[in-house]
Automatic annotation (TrEMBL):
Organism: Roseinatronobacter alkalisoli
Sequence ranges assigned to domain SAM-dependent MTase RsmB/NOP-type in this UniProt record: 132-424
Residues the record lists as binding S-adenosyl-L-methionine: 239-245, 260, 286, 302
Catalytic residues identified in the record: 359 (nucleophile)
Protein known as: Transcription antitermination factor NusB
Record family assignment: Belongs to the class I-like SAM-binding methyltransferase superfamily. RsmB/NOP family.
Record's keyword annotation contains Methyltransferase: yes
Entries under Pfam families matching the protein: Methyltr_RsmB-F (PF01189), NusB (PF01029)
Keyword terms of this UniProt record: Methyltransferase, RNA-binding, S-adenosyl-L-methionine, Transferase
């Protein structure tokens, strides 16, 4: 590849990381700023930024030995990304070091710093794959690590951290049940998901244009399935965008109303429905206040949460969130649960069912939230059998818990919590 073709994605990866930390935006939101790059360069930049964030602590472990003092932040990131590329992703040292020096010159303009980058990276390039593999597995920040240790103990917390070191495979939910489109081969999971371990460009895969599937982690596909037969039932999908669960419910024959407060995210939901040819009534509104004309047979509440179950896909997340965010999210989840479970609110018909779920690893947003809701309302957990799911995924209060350290030999699964709550009448 000519040098400029490698320099542009490397420069863009640095910009992405800068945006994540400076503006506290997720990596996927920050990627909006890459629109001017060709698709291949955009994908390279995104992958490099993602792996840089995932493996930053490993790079720091080796860089600390080579640096007498910490360089300015942007130069430190040049060093981190170059180290991750050479040692973690196996890129050829020569090109990586040349580009790193060029990027430092562009920003810092100081011969001393370009000399430092050159010298340090040459030292890094001497490390073997074994040196890299022996660096300690990066730890989660204290606010999250402590909560996971309390919930699951130390060995499981370490297993979760180890699982975060691997990028998630690509999971597809098939619109028409178990039959994948011609030419699309993958691993069939007990969740009904088709898993691809080396996918490449998503929009180039067979069946994308015809809307035969959509991207959805295996764990994220379970909550809608907990509602079982929904043919002809009216289902309110609360907090619906970008619509993974809306599409599952619509494909299963439900009359779906998809409610979300975010206009841009609803835009993506509309695009998804158009691509898959599925149908739902889409409403922009606040779930704490919106009232329907008549109550629904069932509600799926995929509540806003810390998203700590998705760190494999979003390695920036632990750096952007903190305890106070989780506390505020827990309060909102309880309010949303009260809204859907209180018959006087007019959202759920008598005897109707609610699936509550979050893509969080924290019991405060899952098990504890569900138990507290059962204490506040006349509802009970309904045990639903999903064939193929291990029994130890069941939780004492009647829910299901998944974690990224599950299924280690098949590529893991996102962390999720889900439970079906039914009115006792
Ligand atoms: C976990 S995401 C939903 C993912 C979605 N269910 C899917 O499967 O694709 C949470 C969503 O909650 C929405 N949200 C947050 N607070 C809300 C509120 N008060 N009312 C409606 N939507 C809300 C956010 O805009 C976001 O789209």
């Amino acid at each position: 590849m000519p040098q400029s073709a490698t320099l542009a994605p490397r420069a863009a990866a640095l910009d992405l990381i800068h945006t994540v930390f400076e503006h506290r935006r997720s990596l996927s939101d920050a990627q909006g700023g890459l629109a001017t790059l060709p698709p291949e360069a955009r994908a390279r930049a995104a992958r490099l930024a993602q792996e840089g964030l995932r493996q930053m602590d490993r790079a720091d472990h080796l860089l600390r030995r080579a640096l007498r003092k910490t360089p300015p932040d942007r130069v430190l990131w040049v060093l981190r990304l170059a180290t991750v590329e050479m040692l973690g992703l196996g890129a050829a040292a020569h090109g990586v070091i040349n580009d790193a020096v060029a990027l430092t010159r562009g920003w810092a303009g100081e011969p001393k710093l370009t000399g430092l980058v050159n010298a340090v990276l040459r030292q890094m390039a001497q490390h073997s794959a074994q040196d890299w593999a022996q660096t300690p597995v990066p730890r989660l920040p204290a606010w999250l690590r402590g909560a996971l240790q309390n919930a699951y103990g130390n060995p499981v917390t370490q297993a979760i951290e180890a699982a975060h070191q691997h990028p998630a495979p690509l999971d597809l939910t098939l619109r028409d049940g178990a039959e994948p489109p011609t030419g699309l081969a993958g691993q069939a999971l007990p969740t009904g998901t088709l898993r691809l371990h080396h996918a490449g460009q998503v929009s180039a895969l067979p069946g994308y244009d015809s809307g035969a599937w959509w991207v959805q982690d295996a764990a994220a596909s379970l909550p809608a399935r907990l509602l079982g037969q929904v043919q002809g039932a009216s289902v309110l999908d609360i907090c619906a965008a970008p619509g993974g669960k809306t599409m599952q419910l619509a494909a299963a024959g439900a009359k779906v109303t998809a409610l979300d407060m975010s206009g841009p995210r609803l835009g993506r939901l509309h695009e998804n429905l158009a691509r898959t040819g599925l149908d739902a009534a889409v409403v922009q509104g606040d779930a704490l206040h919106w009232t329907p004309d008549s109550p629904f047979d069932a509600i799926l509440l995929d509540a806003p949460c810390s998203a700590t179950g998705t760190i494999r896909r979003h390695p920036e997340l632990p750096h952007l969130r903190n305890r106070a965010d989780v506390k505020a999210l827990c309060a909102l989840q309880a309010q949303l649960l009260d809204r859907v479970l209180d018959p006087a609110q007019g959202l759920l018909r008598a005897g109707g069912r609610v699936v509550y779920c979050t893509c969080s690893l924290l019991p405060d947003e899952g098990e504890a939230q569900a138990s507290a809701a059962m204490a506040r309302h006349r509802v009970q957990a309904q045990r639903v059998c999903l064939p193929g799911l291990p029994d130890d995924w069941r939780t004492p209060e009647g829910g299901i818990r998944t974690r990224p350290d599950y299924w280690p030999d098949s590529g893991g699964i996102d962390g999720f919590y889900m439970i079906v709550l039914q009115h006792m009448g």
